[in-house]
Amino acid sequence: MKKVLFLIALIGGFAWSANAQLQPKKPVTVKISTPTVQCEQCKKKIENYMKGEEGISKINVDFKRKITTITYLPERTNIENVKTGIANAGYDADDVKANEDSYKALPTCCKKPADQK
Questions:
Q1: What are phi and psi of 46, to 5 degrees?
Q2: pLDDT number for residue 97
Q3: What is the DSSP letter of 36?
Q4: How far apart are CA 84 and CA 74, in angstroms?
Q5: Given the DSSP bridges, would you call strands 56-62 and 67-72 parallel, antiparallel or unpaired?
Q6: What pLDDT was estimated at residue 4?
Q7: How far apart are CA 43 and CA 69, in angstroms?
Q8: Residues of the chain with pLDDT under 50
Q9: Which of 5, 58, 93, 96 could form a Cys-Cys staple with 71, CB 3.0–4.6 A?
Q10: What is the pLDDT of residue 114?
């Protein structure tokens, strides 16, 4: 009888573990400092660029506060990929610096004030 109960408990434990692994992870929302965002055009550029990145489900760029809020699916991407995506669009993202070529291609109004000459 003890062996049967042990066997049932063991099988139940495996079933619960397998079910937990099948559950999709909940979306993660993060706020990223984007200090080089200057205007509405910057906002649109980042939002349009990031919509094409895998795992991004929601994005909002607040250019006045210089904060970008992104919701992503952790089973499809991670925070470093998100920051790299913003950098590839030509903007700094927390500790990740903007891609130099992408930054140079930005319109003058979207560049840092020191570079707007």
A1: -65, -45
A2: 96
A3: T
A4: 15
A5: antiparallel
A6: 60
A7: 11
A8: 18
A9: 58
A10: 84
Q: What residue ranges do the domains of the chain occupy?
A: 28-112
pLDDT, position 44: 96
Question: Residues in the chain, how many?
Answer: 117
C-beta separation of 116 from 106 below 8 A: no
pTM of the predicted structure, to 2 decimals: 0.77
Scanning 1-117, the segments in alpha helix (DSSP H) are 2-22, 40-51, 79-88, 100-105
Beta 67-72 vs 28-33: how paired, if at all?
A: antiparallel
What pLDDT, on the 0 to 100 scale, is given for residue 11? 65
Return the amino acid letter for 19: N
pLDDT of residue 95: 94
Pick from 70, 69, 99: which is nearest to 84 by CA? 99
pLDDT at 25: 79
Strands laid side by side in the 56-62 sheet: 28-33, 67-72, 56-62
Q: What is the DSSP letter of 1?
A: -
The CATH number that domain 28-112 falls under is: 3.30.70.100
Distance of CA 82 to the CA centre of its chain: 4
Instruction: Using alpha carbons, select from 65, 43, 39, 45 the residue that is nearest to residue 105.
Output: 45
